[in-house]
Amino acid sequence: MLRLRFLFTCSLLVLNFSCLPIHSGEPAAMASPSVSATTQSDASPIALPVLNIKATRLRIELACTPAEQQQGLMFRRELPEDQGMLFVFPQEQRLSFWMKNTYVPLSIAYLDKQGTVVDIQDMKPLDLEPHPSAKLARYALEVNQGWFQRHQVVVGDVIALDSFCANRRP
After folding, report:
1. Are 141 and 85 in contact (CB under 8 A)?
2. Residue 99 Cα to chain centre, angstroms
3. CB neighbour list of residue 28: distance below 8 Å, 6 or more residues apart
4. What is the pLDDT of residues 4-27, one digit of tens each?
5. Largest CA-CA distance found in the chain, in angstroms, rounded
6. Rounded Cα distance, 125 and 41, in Å
């Protein structure tokens, strides 16, 4: 019983330290993949939420918790063309991302609380240079580099974000 209690306490400490919140001014999330698009048990596809952006459907993985945001798209070697990751933060703030341990070239769009695109930037793989948002943002959307340009998404466009992560906040 004492050993079980000790293991439980150690587990809680590890979880607490690995999920520390990210502060603005530091890279807010490491722009890289987080959750695999297949389950480990049966390798069947996971149904991903869909964002409708102009005339295009983009399947998105959600990064709502600090742990998901820290992992981001790290360590992935590819990202399907019609897929991205939406980072959802509790309130608007200056966000900053970097590409540590991220092998896929990405573009990032920062969006305010209404879903208006306030900044779009391209990021190089494995680059440790921060990419801060030009304005306050509540969301960050990462896609393959050039995706926004190919789909004519520009600063000022509004993306309907509904209530992604509404029930997933820690």
Report:
1. yes
2. 12
3. 22, 69, 87, 89, 95, 96, 97, 140
4. 343 334 443 333 333 333 333 334
5. 60
6. 30
- For the chain, give percent helix, strand, coil, nearest 5: 15, 35, 50
Go through the domains of the chain in sequence order and give each one's CATH number: 2-150 (2.60.120.1140)
Read off the pLDDT of residues 91-133 as tens digits, 9 standing for 90 and up. Answer: 999 999 999 999 999 999 999 999 999 999 999 999 999 999 9
* H or E element that contains 85: strand 83-93
Look-up: residue for tokens 């983009």?
58
Q: How many Å from the N-terminal Cα to the C-terminal Cα in the chain? A: 29
| Confidence (pTM) | 0.73
Q: Residue type for 29, please?
A: A
